[in-house]
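REQUEST FORM: STRUCTURE PREDICTION
Request ID: SP-0412
Submitted by: Lab K.M.
Chain count: 1
Length (residues): 126
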Amino acid sequence: MKETDICTYAETFSSAHTDFKAEWGATRLLLDDKMFGMLGQDKSGKRILTVKLKPEDGELLREQYAEIVPGYYMNKVHWNSIDLAGQVPDETIKTMIQKSYQLILQAMTKKRQREIAELASDTTTS
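STATUS: Completed
RESULT:
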């Protein structure tokens, strides 16, 4: 999956946006100011996408795909990095992005969750 496609897909989620953090040399996928993904590179220069998942989901995917490893420069239990030059199917990457977004959304206050849901419904009804 191309990085531009990843950003475009991530921005389809309500209140999600991307930015470039120059000091990291990475593009962040954000829900409000909370990161649910990061596009960057590892120490060898490989382009990677790092997303947050439930530990059991991340572990299962790491067993299925050699290109999915514990999160580079992140908490190794909750974050997972995907080698974008690898063979991980686009649909699997999209599912991982969606699950990461949901984890961050669920950690927000109920009030903010309702606001984001209202924004999403306004977008679909207009």
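NOTES: Strands lie at 16-21, 26-31, 34-41, 47-52, 68-70, 79-83.
Reviewed by: T.R.
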